[in-house]
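Need tokens for this chain, all 619 residues.
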Amino acid sequence: MRIRTLLIVANIGLAAIAVQVAIAQNDWPSYGRDPGAQRYSPLTQINPGNVSTLVQAWKYETRPPSIAKAQQASKTTPLMVNNVVFFVTPFQSLVAVEPETGKTIWKFDHQHAARASRGIAYWPGNRNAPPTIFFGTEDGFLIGVNARTGKLVPGFAKEGELDLKPGMKGPGLESAPYGLNGAPAIYKNLVFTGTHLQDNGSYGGRGDVRAWDAATGKLVWTFHTVPQPGEVGHETWLDDGWKNRSGVNVWSTFTVDTETGTLLMPIGGPSDDRYGGDRPGANLFGNSLVAVDAMTGKMKWYLQTTHHDLWDTDLPPQPTLIDVVKDGKRIPALIQTAKTGLVFILDRRTGKAIFGLEERPVPKGDVPGEWYSPTQPFPLKPPPLARMTWNRDEITKFTPEQQKYCEELFKNAQNDGPYAPVRMTDTVVFPGPDGGFNWGGGSYDPKLGYFFINSHDRGGVQKMVAQVPAKERPTKIGGAGDSSQMPFIRRNAGAITNPATGWPCQSPPWGELFAINVNTGDVAWRIPFGRVESLEKIGVMNTGSYNIGGPIATASGLLFIGATDDQRFHAYESKTGKLLWETKLPADAFANPITYLGRDGKQYILIAAQETMIAFRLP
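Here are the structure tokens for all 619 residues:
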């Protein structure tokens, strides 16, 4: 009898595990689908043979009827957990809907400042707390909502709302911007938060990363992204440049290596992000990927991808966990991409580059009192996947008027190649402010061993301008977010675009989609991504275009991505990059899609097209 009972209990346990596995396969439970951010779904119902027949299943308009202001951008990645789809809107709401119909289950409204939040986090709860949806607000709150009821979780912080700002601003900086619009991350009973801070002005809110008890909201640990005296990296901030320093923040989101309990933190650059005369030195942990113990916050390793940032070369994409097979051995690895267009393939145990990394000399600028790093790190493989320079023979010549405008622009601006610092005269800057890669990030197909990511080339002409009599180094910079008292600030002299046509002056492609073979570091395929309809009318095709947002991959061999500024949603064949399906949306889909299986047995693809959530399925 006892043996029979044990067998029954064991079978029930195995059945429960099987149900959980099935749910996990059908759902999209976290920002990158899995904690390692592969954005890879095992679903195969939609495949290369039938994807061209996709139809709209449902749509959800997020704008309340009472609001009449201009269109609001949405960059949110929804979640699908236990037969419920969750997403935040640009209108101060968190919504739960039926995954097959888009019908509202519940809606939670809040009174905090809202912006284009990029995502949310789901925590399954424990014996003391219910399943919870966490999301951030632009005025610095982390909010916990009961995933079943749509009500605030009273046991979390103060009646479900955690004010993240206390202790994060120094004296006199109380009005400094401090928000959270990236998706929080979850590991066991912890929820991790970064920050959204100002880019202009040196002083402001702190970019520290923190871990909170997901049930109570109590602080568990803090990692100082600007090292304090006695901490590793403090010596890279010369002349007290670390004091009250803003920026150096995770403004996108994190990745968790659940096998080793490691939190991976892609940290952005210091503020001010274009002038660093008041912060000489390499400035750790600015522009760094930092690995810490997820339960304690203790650092394991770091890699700084840009020393002493003067270009706003943040690391907005999530790191993606992958496996690399090299010399017959499997290496637990990750991919970190950056605004520079560089791709770092690292051993995730050590942070070392698998295909090599070298420091290369870079140009020095002419801004009085500025500190310039003599070198910058470059991976040996893959090559840079975004434009870092511009030559005369790369001027666009679609029409005589276009050629004339662009040649005049080129003649009056200087370009010194990769990491060219902005000078006191007009300087061509590539990549531009949005970088080559941005927060959309990439996806990974473990069957192919391919990593997919999209980039764009939107450069600019900039120069540094003196505001006060130049000194060797300023003694004081303005208050929070204030650049009015800085000795030098960056001015935009214009885009590298003909305003009469909107066409860039550098030769296309202006946007690309890539597949990288992670086992070799080589580019498996690359294609122009996006279209410019005004050029297509005169017979110029395959230019690519501006794009922001990222792809997802499925086990059936498909790649789904919106991202382009031509209002289109696309499906590509993962192995070749062949376009298999495309549809016009009501607005640009500057967001990451998800896919899931509904209770009706249908596979759905869901994406935010600005204010509208749109789902597709097979007929």
